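Structure ticket #2291
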Amino acid sequence: MNKVWKYIVGVASALVAALIIFRKKKKTESIEAPENPLTKVVVEQINDDLEQELEKVNSAIEGESPAEKLANLGNSRGRS
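Resolution: structure written out below.
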C-alpha cells in the first residue's frame, strides 16, 4: 500500500508542476495616459530653465577665471 501512495503523490506532483510550467499567461494591455495640457507647460518650463542654466555655465567658462565663476554658480545653486 505504501508504494501506491508514493505513486499517486508522484503523479499528482508531476501534474501540478506541468500545469504551473505550461500555463498560459494573460497578456497585459498597455493603457496610455490621457493627454494632459499641464505636462506640455511643465516640459517647456523645464527646458527654458535648462537653457538659462546652460547659458550661465557657458558664459562662466569663457571668462578670465572660469574656475571662480563656476564655483560661484555652484555655490549660488546650493543656497537657493
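Closing remark: The chain is about 75% helix and 0% strand.
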